[in-house]
């Protein structure tokens, strides 16, 4: 049986992966603070949150206080006495383009990270990234050649995380594994550069955002298209023969949709497109199917390329049908080996 299955989107899931690279050992600079046993890893689990306003610019603040402290060594080649600690923090995300102080988290949200500096820092909690901020606690000393150990550092373990919507979200977002900042420290002498070893690394391990806006595709059930038995002659598989209808009914409601009609756009998402043309859906089977794709067209006969969004005519009251067709297409000059083939894709919705 040869068929294509297009699944319903009940939630847009965005997976953030990070790679923790090894920190190469190097000689400590004068006054550098090096955590014992490596950087303290702080993990912020924000749990589930409902987004009441799904408009661009809406923001959501979360305070975090993870409570645990860590031990670190002062490295000194000269004597320090009654000195503050200077802190710097680097951002692990790119600078956001919507508001000052925000970093780009994904296509739907920017994030601002503020970190409490332990001590007597006078002023607002600094926003990452920042450089050479004193904790104004003039109580630290270090006498060479022995390094001093301190056992109650906590900088990086508390602060604020603010999420700001940059694009309306459909159904929800699931965040996992986003490293957001590294914190560095040094004793005395503000003009000296920071060392290469962070004291703490701050990660967002989990956050699930749900919104009242909801789009249901095909009543929540998968769409299955069966091409039946077709010949393997490549010249006959040209994207126009053996065509099957693919109606995709969509109904959006709640949240932003309750205020009136919005511009709804749809796309067919598939990461593994046809090897010979990325506009076509790729296929799999018990034998090599790299020379076979599925061409999608709209009701006017226009190509609907994979992984692109399209305005859909005929929608009213935030609902309507995207009437497509699907047909097999072979790589030019090749025939298709006998046997089953499959293709799957996801219908994705965006709106403004």
Describe this structure in words.
The chain is built from no helices and 25 strands. It has strands at 3-7, 33-35, 40-50, 59-65, 70-74, 80-83, 85-91, 103-104, 109-115, 130-134, 140-142, 148-153, 158-165, 172-187, 200-210, 214-217, 223-226, 244-253, 264-269, 273-274, 277-282, 292-298, 309-311, 319-330, 342-351. It has a 6-stranded antiparallel β-sheet with strand order 16-18-24-22-21-20, with no helix packed on it. Strands 17-1-25-19-23 form a 5-stranded mixed β-sheet, with no helix packed on it. The chain starts with a strand and ends with a strand. Mean pLDDT is 82; it is low at 1-26.
Top-tier CATH class of the largest domain: Mainly Beta
Unreliable spans are 1-26
Rounded Rg:
28 Å
Number of domains: 2
- Biggest sheet descriptor: 6 strands, antiparallel
Q: What count of helical segments does DSSP give?
A: 0
- Beta-strand content: over 45%
Report the span from N to C terminus. Answer: 40 Å
**How do the SSEs run, as a string of H and E?**
EEEEEEEEEEEEEEEEEEEEEEEEE
Task: Summarize this structure as a short list of keywords or feature phrases.
single chain, 352 residues, mainly beta, Immunoglobulin-like, 2 domains, 6-stranded antiparallel beta sheet, 5-stranded mixed beta sheet
